[in-house]
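Carboxymuconolactone decarboxylase, pasting as requested.
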Amino acid sequence: MLTPLPAEEWDDEAREALASTVPPERRRPDMVGNALSTLVRHPVLAGAFLPFNTYLQKESTLPERLRELVILRTAFHHDCAYEWGHHSAMALQVGLTEADIEATRSGAEANEFDQAVLDAVDELHTGSRVCPHTWERLGQQLDDRQRMDLMFTFGGYSTLAFALNTFGVQLEDGAGTDEFYASMES
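Structure tokens follow.
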């Protein structure tokens, strides 16, 4: 298990590792949350991984709503409470309903296209590939770049789930609430 890097051990290298993700005024242990505070224990690795994760979260061609479907189904498969706690709240902010979020647990979505997204995540999880039929179903609404981003979102958040689960990163008190995110932004 790894704990967040203690405040007295933060240095310029730890703060710089967060440069692609966090504005300078928030690069401190009390402002970045447990996941980032733990990842900066290895600043070189964090500095390499976080730009990719930031791309998946903010610059991906995958629509936000679908991105959150992918992340939640991935978090479910890996039993990652940390990802689930943060992304279930984010999912509501980008238009998923409580029923959509529940569907990421059950794997059964009423919307046919959303079901194709969940099926793609399930196939990646169990067989390390999306089958041709599901790839075609995704292609009804997503172009090749979006389908690639879907696959890399699954992969990136799987990697993060492996790390968060192995390190024992704890969900912050109040995570998943509007008040929590407002305090992180101030």
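Note for the archive: The mean pLDDT is 94.
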